[in-house]
Amino acid sequence: MNNPIDDLLQQLRQFRDERDWAQFHNPKDLALALSIEAAELNEVFLWKKPEDADPARVREELADVLLYAFQLADKYNWDIPQLMQEKLSINAAKYPADKARNSAAKYDKL
Amino acid sequence: MNNPIDDLLQQLRQFRDERDWAQFHNPKDLALALSIEAAELNEVFLWKKPEDADPARVREELADVLLYAFQLADKYNWDIPQLMQEKLSINAAKYPADKARNSAAKYDKL
Amino acid sequence: MNNPIDDLLQQLRQFRDERDWAQFHNPKDLALALSIEAAELNEVFLWKKPEDADPARVREELADVLLYAFQLADKYNWDIPQLMQEKLSINAAKYPADKARNSAAKYDKL
Amino acid sequence: MNNPIDDLLQQLRQFRDERDWAQFHNPKDLALALSIEAAELNEVFLWKKPEDADPARVREELADVLLYAFQLADKYNWDIPQLMQEKLSINAAKYPADKARNSAAKYDKL
Question: Per its UniProt record, what Gene3D superfamilies does this chain match (chains A, B, C, D) (predicted)?
């Protein structure tokens, strides 16, 4: 039995291939598509307090971001939990808990 | 034993709480942070052919996008594979394979 | 005597040509560069109340957005005030004052 | 007689006030709106070669970016050509012509 991430990746490949979309899916345009979905996600919050955004729309736009993020990772044959795990360790080192506590400053301003 | 997604979510919550960052993590700013990371991902490709971008940098910036996407989903207590699965079904209906084949057009132009 | 917009455009062309950057300045990458600067502008506001963002940094990042916007318009040989004027008229028609008053809704939801 | 920039700013203020939109126009959301328009501009180029993007759509989306950029500058009462002029001087110092020639590298990598 597959895990849920592999299931999704397999379905995304099938979705792409049934439409012959591999020709468009170079990593630069996949990253661009991801950022456009990120903007659509932001649009749900535009001119609003955070709690006034419609969760159903947030959910859909966030899903589109994730679907492109998974496809970009898959393009490079990367293991998704592993790349996240590695970056989380890097971030933990960049933002030591005792310096970063209660601060929204960027790591180079801590 | 946890699955890798739950493992990551648990570590992200711990990372946040050790730094008292829950005060900053409203969904509007999480979405904004995600889109800023998406722009940093795009920057790796800027002025370049897709194949000339440095994969190590793509990997790190994509990881940051995913880390914020997971935190935003977690903020709403959503199951991540499930929300992706649902949107993939919606997208499959919006882009019927026979109409969308070989086309980069948006669904409302098919 | 030139007007300030033509002055800026002429300086931007000289800036580009002294560095032989015309080779990179296709409109797709100029638009991408613009959106990356827009994200840097957003980063000044991240995790903050609008009034707590540092105006000096807002000013610099907004300037970078404008510099790329002007270069993109110039790439197409467009008159900048004229294209803005035209779109402002379109927006006024999309958002009739009596319907749009006090509403942050998108035009297709008015 | 007004110059074209002041004309546009005056019309933008009138457009906003006829709709009572000043209540929404804090600088954080104006910057967010600008970045969403920047993403719509990028979408015109998505999955395409730069020369295949529809210029009429580029023109409209670029106009929306500029309209928000002008409104954000006006929110801070800034002189637009002056802030652009200042940043162009900063950029010229960050990217000395002899080092930056033929290079798409960021200033800290020159």
Answer: MazG-like
- Judge whether residue D93 has pLDDT over 60: yes
Token pair belonging to D76? 């801070």
Supply angle C-alpha C12, C13, C16, rounded to 5: 85
> A50 and chain B: CB distance < 8 Å anywhere?
yes
Contacts A8 to B, Cβ<8 Å: 81, 84-85, 88
pTM for this prediction: 0.97
- A104 and C47 in contact by Cβ < 8 A? yes
Average pLDDT over residues D20-45: 97
Structural domain boundaries in chain D? 26-99
**Which residue in chain C has the smallest CA separation from D106?**
C33
Task: Establish if B19 touches chain C: CB-CB under 8 angstroms.
Answer: no
- Tens digits of residue pLDDT in B46-68: 999 999 999 999 999 999 999 99
Q: Are A72 and B66 in contact (CB under 8 A)?
A: no
If we measure between CA atoms, which residue out of C27, D102, A75, C36 comes closest to residue B43?
C36
Using CA atoms in the order C76, C79, C80, C81, what is the torsion angle rounded to 10 degrees? -160
Chain A residues with CB under 8 Å of D33 CB are 46-47
| Residue labelled with tokens 């652009």 | D84
Q: Can you name the CATH fold of D26-99?
A: Helix Hairpins (1.10.287)
Q: Angle at CA D32, nearest 5°, toward D28 and D38?
A: 145
Q: What are phi and psi of C47, to 5 degrees?
A: 65, 15
